[in-house]
Amino acid sequence: xxxxxxxxxxxxxxxxxxxxxxxxxxxxxxxxxxxxxxxxxxxxxxxxxxxxxxxxxxxxxxxxxxxxxxxxxxxxxxxxxxxxxxxxxxxxxxxxxxxxxxxxxxxxxxxxxxxxxxxxxxxxxxxxxxxxxxxxxxxxxxxxxxxxxxxxxxxxxxxxxxxxxxxxxxxxxxxxxxxxxxxxxxxxxxxxxxxxxxxxxxxxxxxxxxxxxxxxxxxxxxxxxxxxxxxxxxxxxxxxxxxxxxxxxxxxxxxxxxxxxxxxxxxxxxxxxxxxxxxxxxxxxxxxxxxxxxxxxxxxxxxxxxxxxxxxxxxxxxxxxxxxxxxxxxxxxxxxxxxxxxxx
Length: 344
What we know:
Shape: globular
CATH topology: TIM Barrel
Distance between the termini: 14 Å
Strand order of the largest sheet: 2-3-4-5-6-7-8-9
Number of helices: 12
């Protein structure tokens, strides 16, 4: 049996949801990473440090006694965010970034941003105290083709924002396009990006060919093969600017398989084995540890984890679903066999 022992990863973009759902999502997350950047887009968004502390405690309460896991909290940026709250967040030891959602771009983003220019005072404060900005990079103009929204955000929003605030640390989340890869690769070292396992493994043919596959629907949406190949090249590069962020985003099976299905793919139970599969297929298994465990921690200025995790080449069948409150959630590659698994 082939095994791979590596430094325990960090997941720099995950959705854990709240309430009864934490009993499923938190143990799954803690099974493969020591720390995770937790997204704040709950039904009642996490808009200040006090709410972040309360949410963090609810997450920790769902850990088993044997699990070591630190949720790294974020605040939801709104057009009413006060610069004083940025300073409070920076000094809290709890909040590690501010999340920018274009209004209406994804799940529970209605309270997000319409015009970034209205928040110059917030970005100035973030730059001054060195608190990272985490961006969901899509324009929200309904007239813009959904497959072009990331590229236009980069040219029309991200580029001018970075030019005005050149020292602001920015993570372009869950990138999906060649344009995003090119922008991040050419930018200074205070610009980085996360890459999901589903955007590495899938393209829009997987979503749409032969029928609509709702459990492959996500935001940003899957793109062309050429963009998928650009992401793979970035992930296995040695630039240190691209790192793991699963964007694992669970929804109940009823809300996925509906007339207006929710965007989000639940990858937490399979993320690390599937990253290993992808890296191995591209003759880059030796680079997996840097992508999952080093580059993100270095960008966030966190110590490298000391704990180790072992993957084994031992094929297993992904379950059809997991319990999710009073319903179920379908994981990525449900009912499929994958070659790598986390050694217990």
